[in-house]
Write a structure and sequence with these properties.
Elements: E1 9-13, H1 17-29, E2 35-40, H2 57-64, H3 68-74, E3 78-80, E4 82-86, E5 94-98, H4 111-120, H5 132-138, E6 159-161, H6 164-177, E7 181-184, E8 187-192, E9 199-204, E10 209-211, E11 214-217, H7 224-229, E12 234-236, E13 245-251, E14 261-266, E15 269-275, E16 280-286, H8 293-302, E17 313-316, E18 320-322, E19 326-327, E20 330-332, E21 338-339, H9 347-361, H10 369-395, H11 403-410, H12 415-427, H13 440-449, H14 466-485, H15 490-496
Parallel strand pairs: 1-2, 1-11, 2-7, 4-14, 11-20
Antiparallel strand pairs: 3-6, 4-5, 8-9, 9-10, 12-18, 13-16, 13-17, 14-15, 15-16, 18-21, 19-20
Helix pairs in contact: 1-6, 1-9, 5-14, 9-10
This protein binds flavin-adenine dinucleotide (FAD).
Length: 503
């Protein structure tokens, strides 16, 4: 560290999505006396997947001052209003975890209690009928900004699907234009200070040395610094999330740019479908104990919209997280920090929230262990909450048609999740913990979609006459339908905003 204990040289190891996201934000927000260098190896390459995001990505783009239409055009992006889950509860089932609100709370009583009573009286439709995002997504519509026909509903939140390689390249241009130095080369050794144990430099295989005083490990699953040099340790969560591989393949688009991600449950896992402007990203996330590579390949290739554009590629992973995300003077981000499958598109968000935490806690005094502990505590809580949300999708299934699904239905789950499921089942309550990325409405859609229906509703709801309840439900649905149907189609919207399509 330099005299005033601010890092004078931050070194980022790795230039995938994590590395370039870190470089772009640091180039804009660190002290002017701090240099930022990124080391990456074209020879090794990036994981190259990671194409679906959640609405928080907009905050990252806004922080950088990125023009949204330019970003959409340069990354071949499409808009995303939510995720559709097919065959997860039982074969033939279909629900959506759409972004944004579902219905409207009245007073202190959340919407789900009104919906539950109305549904039990035969006066309400499925939950998705009360979500603007879901109605628009299913109708293939997209719009941003204030709504046209009502001011009682907030604007639709949205995220993006984008090409991961183009995204990294886009951020690289941004970061290099703001002074980030890129060093091309394969890191051979990581040097540590003999006394204190901090990392002091990275030696490239050709002998060049990149010294620094704060290191961001974005080297992917390898975790070159956090694990390779510091042996931080890893918490393995395979007992809760058994999938350990994904076979990925892009395919040609068959037309129809759905503004949502689709996740279809398969015999030993699930398959993603992520529509981009120029192709569709697909992958089968699975557990190798319950299937073979051949079966995975056959299933994946049999369920594409168009011709495959490359050989299917197998990616191996162990679900879990590092015991510390910040260890000594190394902060791990992206795949180097841990991995949870992309069922709810959370990994890129975890990079972003790690960066935001890092900027808030950037060391001002020499190596405060307390600051690192706090960073680790907050990040662990965030990871735990996401893990529970993902496990819910597997645990609350009625599928028993394959050994994989029987295993998932029977597996023990974290106590925190068991409590959440039972609280909802017994009384319809959902309370969001401060560190939970997902809102009550997100939990609601997945709980109900996975067949967890409350046994009772809040007693205050009984004060409403059935006719009034019916009218409330119908009015809300009509409002959403009217709004969604006047929106442009997703294709029309793209043509106006970020149309690499037309080119
Ligand atoms: P990588 O892309 O692996 O990059 C590592 C970098 O380190 C590369 O530049 C490499 O060259 C460099 N490097 C490594 N070793 C060395 C060395 N010795 N010397 C020099 N350089 C080195 N996230 C989402 O948010 N949404 C999704 O839909 C999604 N889908 C996913 C699907 C799958 C199957 C997987 C595995 C992940 C998915 N993710 C998703 C996660 C997402 O891909 C990652 O969070 C993101 O790509 C960040 O990766 P990274 O930059 O950490 O690692």
């Amino acid at each position: 560290m330099n005299q005033d204990c601010r890092p004078s040289h931050i070194v980022i190891a790795g230039g995938g999505t994590a590395g370039w996201m870190a470089a772009a934000i640091l180039s804009s927000f660190v002290h002017s006396g701090t240099r930022v260098t990124l080391v990456e190896s074209d020879e090794i390459g990036t994981v190259g997947v990671g194409e679906a995001t959640i609405p928080q990505i907009n905050l990252y783009n806004q922080a950088l001052g990125i023009d949204e239409d330019t970003f959409v055009r340069e990354t071949q992006a499409t808009y995303k209003l939510g995720i559709e889950f097919v065959d997860w509860h039982h074969l033939g089932s279909r629900y959506m975890h759409a972004f944004g609100e579902v219905g409207r709370d009245i007073g202190i009583v959340p919407f789900q209690h009104y919906w539950r009573r109305a549904r039990s009286l035969g006066l309400a439709e499925e939950l998705g009928h009360y979500s603007l995002n879901e109605i628009a997504a299913r109708a293939g519509r997209m719009q941003r900004g204030p709504l046209k026909t009502t001011d009682v509903v907030p604007p639709m939140p949205y995220a993006f699907h984008f090409d991961a390689m183009l995204y990294a390249a886009f951020l690289r241009r941004f970061a290099e234009a703001r002074g980030v130095m890129r060093v091309e080369g394969r890191i051979g050794t990581v040097t540590r200070d003999g006394e204190g144990g901090d990392v002091t430099g990275l030696t490239i295989e050709d002998g060049r040395m990149v010294a620094g005083d704060l290191f961001i490990d974005c080297s992917g699953f390898r975790g070159l610094l956090i694990e390779g040099a510091l042996a931080t340790g890893y918490d393995d969560w395979s007992n809760f999330l058994p999938c350990n591989r994904a076979m990925a393949v892009p395919c040609a688009s068959g037309g129809g740019l759905t503004p949502y991600t689709r996740s279809t449950a398969r015999a030993a896992g699930w398959q993603w479908r992520i529509p981009l402007q120029h192709r569709i990203g697909n992958g089968y996330v699975h557990c190798d104990a319950f299937t073979s590579e051949e079966e995975v390949r056959d299933t994946l290739l049999a369920n594409l919209d168009g011709a495959p554009q490359a050989e299917p590629r197998m990616l191996r992973f162990t679900t879990g997280k590092r015991r510390k995300f910040w260890n000594r003077n190394v902060i791990a981000l992206g795949l180097a920090s841990g991995f949870m499958e992309p069922l709810e598109s959370t990994s890129i968000h975890l990079i972003q929230s790690g960066l935001s935490r890092l900027l808030k806690m950037m060391p001002e005094r020499d190596g405060s262990a307390r600051v690192a502990d706090e960073y680790n505590r907050q990040t662990t809580l965030e990871y735990d909450a996401i893990r529970d949300f993902l496990v819910l999708h597997y645990k609350a299934t009625e599928r028993d048609d394959t050994p994989f699904w029987r295993h998932c239905a029977a597996m023990p789950v974290p106590d925190s999740l068991a409590h959440k499921i039972e609280l909802f089942r017994e009384a319809g309550h959902i309370f969001r913990a401060a560190d939970d990325l997902f809102t009550e409405v997100g939990w609601l859609q997945v709980l109900v979609g996975q067949g967890v229906i409350p046994q009772r509703h809040h007693p205050l709801v009984d004060a409403i006459e059935p006719d009034d309840l019916k009218s409330y439900m119908e009015t809300w649905e009509a409002l959403m339908q009217r709004e969604a149907m006047q929106m442009p189609t997703h294709e029309q919207f793209l043509a106006r905003h970020g149309a690499a399509l037309a080119a």
